[in-house]
Amino acid sequence: MASVDPVLVAIISGILLFVLAVYLMLRRTLLAFSEGMRDSRRRD
């Protein structure tokens, strides 16, 4: 088996962590937005 470049592994894992963080942030934002829309409909 060929040796794996540790720099490449670090770059790929960094990109994966970045994508995961963006996904979680967008998910939290959209959930809060939809909850706010539901609350505003209830108050009317």
Describe the structure.
With 44 residues, the protein is mainly α. Helix content is 86%, strand content 0%. The longest helix has 38 residues. The model has no long low-confidence stretch (mean pLDDT 92).
Q: Which blocks of ≥5 consecutive residues have pLDDT under 50?
A: none
Distance between the termini: 65 Å
What general form does the structure show? rod-shaped
The biggest beta sheet is recorded as:
none
Percent in strands: under 5%
Overall residue-averaged pLDDT value: 92
Q: Please give the number of β-strands.
A: 0
Q: Could you tell me the radius of gyration in angstroms?
A: 19 Å
* Count of DSSP-assigned helices: 1
Return the structural class. mainly alpha
Helicity level = over 70%
In sequence order, what are the helices and strands, one letter per element?
H
List keywords for this structure.
0% strand; 44 residues; rod-shaped; mainly alpha
Outline of the structure:
By secondary structure, the chain is mostly helical. Helices cover 86% and strands 0% of the residues.
Describe how the helices and strands are arranged.
Blueprint: H1 6-43
